[in-house]
TrEMBL record:
This is Transmembrane protein 120B. Residues 44-71 form a coiled coil. PANTHER family: TRANSMEMBRANE PROTEIN 120B, TRANSMEMBRANE PROTEIN INDUCED BY TUMOR NECROSIS FACTOR ALPHA. It comes from Leptonychotes weddellii (Weddell seal). It is a multi-pass membrane protein.
Length: 181
């Protein structure tokens, strides 16, 4: 009796539960990460609103304060700014809602890159994309102007320019949503 090449009874790896267990642990850690992100985001938002309220209260009392109180208010305002910067850095690693443009183009997709390495890799890839396509489009413009005088090539070149611009705006929006300036 010949063995059927499509049966997997002789393959010890496929009968193993290691991939299933690894996947179960992965799903569990992903759920933990999601809940921690939600908890951290809500905590930061609460603290930001409290800081905003404190800042407005300090502004009201600043005009009627004595010199010593004004210095204290100045120190507290500096501490508030420092806290806001810390919260900004913390939020860079948390998922956030996309802007209007990304929602229109991509929908409600999380485009937050969670590690610095991923952010730098994406920015590096973006810069390479810009450089290569700029060179290609520059050569294409020269070719359309001096070598190829056809309406079809002109239309193809215009399509490539529009595609390039749209792609750049999407990539720039992703970079901005990940904290790039």
């Amino acid at each position: 009796m010949k063995s059927d090449p499509f049966t997997f009874s002789h393959t010890p790896c496929l009968g193993s539960s290691i991939p299933q267990e690894t996947h179960r642990i992965y799903k569990q850690k992903l759920e933990e990460l999601t809940s921690l992100q939600t908890l951290c985001s809500s905590s930061i938002n609460k603290q930001k609103t409290r800081l905003k309220d404190l800042k407005h209260t300090l502004q009201r009392y600043k005009n009627h304060a004595s010199r010593e109180e004004a210095e204290l208010i100045q120190q507290m305002s500096a501490n508030i700014k420092e806290r806001q910067n810390i919260f900004f850095d913390m939020e860079a690693y948390l998922p956030k809602k996309n802007g209007l443009y990304l929602n229109l183009v991509l929908g409600n997709v999380n485009v937050t890159l969670l590690s610095n390495q991923a952010k730098f890799a994406y920015k590096d890839e973006y810069e390479k994309f810009k450089l290569y396509l700029t060179i290609i489009l520059l050569l294409g413009a020269v070719a359309c102007r001096f070598v190829l005088h056809y309406r079809v090539t002109d239309e193809v070149f215009n399509f490539l320019l529009v595609w390039y611009y749209c792609t750049l705006t999407i990539r720039e929006s992703i970079l901005i949503s990940n904290g790039s300036r």
